[in-house]
Amino acid sequence: PSNVGLIAGTLVAAAVGGLVGLLLAFMALRYRANQVIVGVVIVAFCTGMTTFLNDQVLVPHASLNQTIQALPIAIPVLSRIPILGPALFDQPYFVYLALALAALINFGLFRTRWGLRVRSVGEKPRASETVGINVIRTRYSNVILGGMVAGIGGATFTIGSGINFGVGMTQGYGFIALAIMIVGRWKPWGAVAGTLLFGFTLSLAANISVYSSQVAIPSQFLNALPYMVTIAVVAGLAGRVRAPAADGIPYSRE
What span, in angstroms and rounded, lies between the C-alpha atoms of 146 and 17? Predict the structure, then answer.
C-alpha cells in the first residue's frame, strides 16, 4: 500500500504538472502571450490556490496530509562500494528516476529524429515548418512533457522527503531551476551537474549551521548561501551560454 501511494502520488504530480504546462502552452502559443508574464501569473495563481486548499481542506482534515516517505532502495553490490556506494546506490527511487529521466531525455534530444525536430523548432521554427514539422504541436507536447517532469520534481518535496505539505515549502527552488538550466547550457546532463552544485551548497549550509554558534556565522547568511552561489555561477556564465535562438519568441504561421 505504501508503494502504491508513492507511485500514485508521483503519477498525480506528473498529471497536475502536465496540466499546468498545458495552460502555459495554451496562453503562449494560442494567444502568443509573453511567456515570462504568463509564468509569473501561473506561479501566483498556483500559490494562491494551494494556500486556499491547504487552509480549507488539509488543515481541517489533517488525515489527508499524512506523510508517505520514499525509503532508500539499495542496489545490490553497488551500494556496498565504499563512500560512493551509499551516496549513489542507496537512495530513494526519486533519485534513480531523475537520473533515468536525464539519460532518456538526453538520448531523445541528441540521438533520435524526435530530438532533432525538437531542437530545430527551438532554433529555426520557420525553417522547420517548411520541411513539414508542425511547430505548434511540437511546442505544445514538449511544454506539457516539461510540466510533467516539473510535477515529479515537486513531488519530492513531500513524498520524496516524507514531510507534510506546507505552504511555501519549495522556498523558491523553482526559480533556481531556471538558473540551473542556464548553468547546464540547456542540456539534461548539464542540468544534473547544476543541480548537484546547488544541492551541495544546500548541504554545506545545513552542516555549517550546526556549528554557526562556534564560528559566529549569521544564520541568514547560511540560508542565503546556496542562492548566492547560484547567482555567482550564472553571472559568470552570462554572455557565454547561448539559449536556443527561438526561445521565448512567439511563433505564427502567418
Answer: 8
